[in-house]
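Try this one yourself first.
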């Protein structure tokens, strides 16, 4: 992990200017430039947001700090709480906007919008995204693209038909640390050697129902109109079939998307197990623990990739580990995790250190541990690998670079880092896990399944 004190560490702005970032998508596209519409200033973009719950709030907090972004409309069905709170937030930032309950009314009334951010529960994404694209807007839609493959497919098709931009909220795709790991460590240096194995997880502690402030509930008729049976379901939509996809979709989608990205591949098979073993199945319809193993056929050979998410213990939090015959990369969105380890038998990494790709371990005094006479070293133990630090740090809010990439793409200054075809591959990779658990057998992915 790099810290601000590392003289070799470079920050995000420096990195974005580097060739790696250009390779990752910062190029000019005449096609995209043609789609750009004029605001008051040539670069200004009029934006709406649909869904201002936990994630909508986080996106707003980043977006209001991006120059030239003007929120003109806010839509949320929870008038007494989220809608009111986030409207107040926008006013404090001097974004004059109209407020709506129904996104269809917003689309009918607002004729001056160019883009919309969608951060509603997963089951709303397909309908709202397709309608917004058809209304001529560029869309930033949160992950998971949809809770159904058919929904995700409709989104890909609508983006294609309308020619509007659709960015899916897999924000690690714009995170400079992840881009550097992909472009520099894996592609340029092949620092890990032949990749063989991936391990990843997102573990969380036991959590109570989300609840809601007393007196701030939504009436039953409104809840029903928008697809919810009760306030409990409205708040804990992630756990309900038909609304969300459970932790494997909610959390796993972020990280399994990285497996596909870093391997430049989609998986061939998945075996998975899971269940609702701890919580009440009436309120936790999706599995509260899932363990899945994918197998990938890459151009360098087979890679097996494990993923676990449990909701009863937070041990080790969340991370992804990529293992090759010459080294290991440990990476996470959490900034405290980010190391590379060189296998003792691998060629020296001095040239990568010199080129600033990784930061060398601090000099350590050789500790001599004399074996007592007659005791042989344990030959089963591999020598401990050397730990190197990543040369790029992420110093901004996690979602800001991904939003910036979306707005830059609208302005014709960038190519989307997570366009719908890419996100669709990730959606099928993740949604198949729930199918595999239900079917109780190994599931195969056919290459044509990844194409719309
Ligand atoms: N990228 C990330 O790191 C990240 C993190 C968390 C959540 N998410 C995603 O963001 C989305 C929202 O998650 P959240 O945690 O904010 O959920 P949430 O329940 O906190 O918020 C959802 C908001 O949408 C509103 N809403 C519900 N149905 C609506 C409708 N039909 N029209 C308009 N508004 C509606 C609700 O009133 C609420 O304010 C989900 O897709 C989730 O997967 C992404």
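Now uncover the answer:
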């Amino acid at each position: 992990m790099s810290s601000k004190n590392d003289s070799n560490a470079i920050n995000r702005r420096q990195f974005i200017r580097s060739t790696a970032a250009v390779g990752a998508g910062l190029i000019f596209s005449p096609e995209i430039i043609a789609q750009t519409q004029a605001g008051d200033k040539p670069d200004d973009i009029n934006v709406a947001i649909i869904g201002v719950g936990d994630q909508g709030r986080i996106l707003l907090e980043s977006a209001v700090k991006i120059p030239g972004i003007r929120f003109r409309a806010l839509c949320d069905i929870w008038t007494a709480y989220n809608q009111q709170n986030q409207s107040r937030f926008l006013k404090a930032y001097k974004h004059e906007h109209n407020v709506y309950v129904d996104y269809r009314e917003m689309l009918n009334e607002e004729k001056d919008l160019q883009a919309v951010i969608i951060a509603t529960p997963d089951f709303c994404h397909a309908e709202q995204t397709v309608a917004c694209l058809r209304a001529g807007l560029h869309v930033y839609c949160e992950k998971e693209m949809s809770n159904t493959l058919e929904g995700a497919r409709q989104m890909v098709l609508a983006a294609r038909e309308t020619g509007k931009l659709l960015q899916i909220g897999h924000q690690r795709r714009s995170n400079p640390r992840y881009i550097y790991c992909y472009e520099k460590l894996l592609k340029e240096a092949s620092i890990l050697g032949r990749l063989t194995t991936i391990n990843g997880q997102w573990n969380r502690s036991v959590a109570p129902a989300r609840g809601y402030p007393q007196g701030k509930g939504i009436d039953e008729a409104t809840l029903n109109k928008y697809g919810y049976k009760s306030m409990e379901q409205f708040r804990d939509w992630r756990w309900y079939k038909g609304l969300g996809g459970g932790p494997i979709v909610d959390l796993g989608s972020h990280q399994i998307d990285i497996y596909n990205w870093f391997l430049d591949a989609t998986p061939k098979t998945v075996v998975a197990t899971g269940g609702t073993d701890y919580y009440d199945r009436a309120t936790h319809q999706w599995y509260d623990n899932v363990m899945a193993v994918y197998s990938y056929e890459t151009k360098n050979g087979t890679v097996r990739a494990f993923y676990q998410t449990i909701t009863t213990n937070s041990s080790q939090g969340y991370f992804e580990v990529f293992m090759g015959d010459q080294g290991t990369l440990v990476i996470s969105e959490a900034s405290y995790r980010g190391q590379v380890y060189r296998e003792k038998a691998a060629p020296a990494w001095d040239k990568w250190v010199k080129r600033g790709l990784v930061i060398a371990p601090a000099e350590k005094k050789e500790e001599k541990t004399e074996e007592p006479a007659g005791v042989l070293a344990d030959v089963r133990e591999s020598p401990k690998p050397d730990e190197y630090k990543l040369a790029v740090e992420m110093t901004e809010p996690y979602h800001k670079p991904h939003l910036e990439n979306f707005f830059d793409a609208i302005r014709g200054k960038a190519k989307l880092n997570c366009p719908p075809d890419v996100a669709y591959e990730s959606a099928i990779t993740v949604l198949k896990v729930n199918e595999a658990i239900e079917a109780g057998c190994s599931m195969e992915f056919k290459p044509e399944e990844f194409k719309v």
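Discussion: The pocket of nicotinamide-adenine-dinucleotide is lined by residues 50-56, 75-78, 82, 103, 119-122, 124, 142-144, 169, 171, 226, 250 (CB under 6 Å). The domain at 174-361+383-395+418-450 is CATH 3.30.360.10 (Dihydrodipicolinate Reductase; domain 2).
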